Amino acid sequence: MTAATEGFAGGKLLLGREGQIATITFNHPDRMNAIELEMWAELARLVPELDKDDNIRVLIFRGAGERAFSAGADISRFAEERSNSAQAREYSEQFLPGLDAIDAFSKPTLSLIRGACVGGGIELASATDIRIAGESSRFGVPVAKLGLVAGYSELRRFVHSIGPTRTMDMLLTARLFSAKEMLDVGFLARVVPDGEVEKTVLETAGRIASLAPLVQRWHKEFVKTILRDPSLDTLTEEDIAKQFASFDTEDFKEGVDAFLSKRTPRFEGR
After folding, report:
1. pLDDT tens column, 126-150
2. Exposed, middle or buried by CB within 10 Å (0-12, 13-18, 19+), for 88?
3. What is the pLDDT of residues 148-168, one digit of tens each?
4. For residue 115, which of 7, 29, 68, 238 is within the disulfide window of CB 3.0 to 4.6 Å?
């Protein structure tokens, strides 16, 4: 899929780059692409580095193979990593920075979802901007089956994206939801036939990458600000000024000129 690939966390994380699009693959298919602690640590380091790379305009997350985006944590490692509350707290302190790094990524992010997307996998997907899934994909947070909870930081994105009622349904029943159900509640942007997921995500990423990158970042920031403060009462003068900053960019001049000239714009992020 990508022209150049690097391996991290013992090869369980792969980073591919093709043009202005980067792809992070959870490469642990024999364990349903479980995201282990060292993988979260690498995400916390790697994602901010990609955010600083001006050559990258879009970041895709995906799982290796067809069976899973990610089934979350590797339960077989609980005995050594999360056998009591002290260990669980330490684990969380190492796991959450990776999740927060994805949420804080200033450029557009996409989740390419095939198969199972549960536990830590759906928590990671919830931190991305656009989620596109195959028809047979399934989703859930079945932690009640294990006798453990999902914490505040893990749940807040679900409450924002699917609302408290559906979040409670997911948590309290511990059942798996279909792709259609997740589309209906707004968690997924699109559901396509399983064989078309990769094509659809790459086409979407390519379209996003072709548009004005500064505008893409501002729009992400504006949406997050609205979610955080729907009243907008906390907007600063700097926040308000950002709504008009695009008019002073070279990309604005290029976009208008290209439209009037009936040609494809070439945005440089300036």
Report:
1. 999 999 999 999 999 999 998 988 8
2. middle
3. 888 898 898 888 889 999 999
4. 68
